[in-house]
Specification:
The chain is built from twelve helices and ten strands. Strand 2 and strand 3 form a beta hairpin. The protein is an alpha+beta fold and about 375 residues long. It folds into three domains: about 110 residues, Acyl-CoA dehydrogenase/oxidase, N-terminal domain (Butyryl-Coa Dehydrogenase, subunit A, domain 1); about 110 residues, Beta Barrel (Butyryl-CoA Dehydrogenase, subunit A, domain 2), CATH 2.40.110.10; about 140 residues, Butyryl-CoA Dehydrogenase, subunit A, domain 3. It has a four-stranded mixed sheet. It has a four-stranded antiparallel sheet with strand order 2-3-7-6, with no helix packed on it. Helix 1 packs parallel to helix 4 and helix 9 packs antiparallel against helix 10. About 45% of the residues lie in helices and about 15% in strands.
Length: about 375
């Protein structure tokens, strides 16, 4: 196994870093303070072609792999930014590329690659179902050549900043399916064509994430909006979920490296009792421990992304990437906060913003406790715990 990046991958990382350098900590601080979408950053990232990394060249994309896509998002967070504003445009590609029709790909992918359309919103979670996705109640009823959809979604991000929405529904009631993950269907919704059938209500949170609750009232979609076959939507979503786990984990790796680099610099320069505070083991050891955790997470990330690119099973590795990376980033964030002491709470130092952002990924897009359950049951063969 190769542990070093190829020259082309290093070039991608360096190019993204150069782009991100144009949007420093003050830019992201301002977006956070104003709860504003980083419009200029996303536009610039898209124009440079980085958001279309996973779209094949035949549709106008870069045609890169998951390894390269993960490096792009890692570098955004390592620069002090927050890739959450646009990462869904990468991980939603898996469902469309693997299961979308030729007409859907031809109609939407070139426009997404060109920056004319944004696909940055994914409607899965519901108020009652939570992490038990098969229990969703949003229902798509077939009526001739179209579907009528009613229901609710919650914690749906970036709705106001998207042109397209991936929407998971039930198309057969839960009580009527033999396998609980059957009977769900996945739709690609053009939000510019649905009128007021979906009402989005923003949810105030501790991070600048553009989170919403959606109320869906008689949303009428043509048969052509269905991705793949009716009733098989959950299996299609899994394609995006593995990509999501890897990409979110990569952002956490970027966060962990940002925290570590920031803490090292501060601990080397800050002097108390006539010596750098980094000379004290109480300061030095937590930073070193967090660094090792981030490096370990990076290795499983590279394995997961490589398996994904080869079309091999990677569910275990993708989930472990998300868990290890998010825990490592949090450990690094705690080390940075402790290193800065009272200054860590001051917004002008930017650590508290990154600390809040890093905490999100221990809970979303899946709770780390569920990752532990997945590994216990599906990797280790232990009895189901829930």
């Amino acid at each position: 196994m190769e542990f070093e990046l190829m020259d082309s991958q290093r070039e991608i990382r360096d190019a993204v870093a150069a782009l991100c350098a144009r949007f420093g900590n003050e830019y992201w601080h301002r977006c956070d303070e104003e709860h504003a979408y980083p419009e200029e950053f996303v536009k610039t990232l898209n124009e440079a072609g980085w958001l279309s990394a996973l779209i094949p060249q035949e549709y106008g994309g870069a045609g890169l792999g998951m390894v390269e896509a993960s490096l792009i998002l890692e570098e955004i967070n390592r620069s002090g930014g927050n890739a959450v504003a646009c990462h869904a445009q990468m991980y939603t590609m898996a469902s469309i590329l693997k299961h979308g029709s030729a007409e859907q790909k031809q109609r939407y992918l070139p426009r997404i690659a060109a920056g004319e359309l944004r696909l940055q919103s994914f409607g899965i979670t519901e108020p009652d179902a939570g992490s038990e996705t098969p229990r969703i109640k949003t229902f798509a009823r077939r009526e001739g050549d179209h579907y009528v959809i009613n229901g609710q979604k919650i914690f749906t991000s970036r709705y106001q900043h998207s042109d397209m929405l991936l929407l998971l529904t039930r198309s057969t009631p839960f009580e009527e399916v033999k396998k609980k993950t059957d009977g769900m269907s996945l739709f690609l919704v053009n939000l510019k064509e649905i009128g007021d059938a979906i009402k989005a209500v923003p949810i105030a949170t501790m991070v600048n994430h553009g989170t919403n609750q959606l109320f869906i009232d008689n949303l009428i979609l043509p048969r052509e909006s269905l991705i793949g076959e009716e009733g098989k939507g959950f299996s299609y979503v899994l394609s995006s979920m593995n990509a999501e786990r890897i990409l979110v984990g990569s952002e956490s790796i970027g966060d962990g490296r940002w925290f570590g680099e920031y803490a090292v610099k501060y601990a080397s320069e800050r002097r108390v009792f006539a010596r750098p505070i980094g000379a004290n083991q109480g300061v030095q050891f937590p930073i070193a421990k967090a660094h090792m955790a981030v490096e370990a997470a990076n290795l499983i990330r590279l394995k997961a992304a490589t398996l994904f690119d080869r079309g091999l099973p990677c569910g275990a590795e993708a989930n472990m990437t998300k868990y290890l990376a998010s825990e490592a980033a949090w450990e690094a964030g705690e080390a940075a906060m402790t290193t800065l002491g009272g200054y860590g709470f001051a917004k002008e130092y930017h650590v508290e913003r990154k600390w809040r952002e890093a905490r999100l990924y221990r809970t979303a897009p899946i709770s780390n406790n569920l990752v532990l359950s997945f590994v216990g049951e599906h990797v280790l063969g232990l009895p189901r715990s829930y």
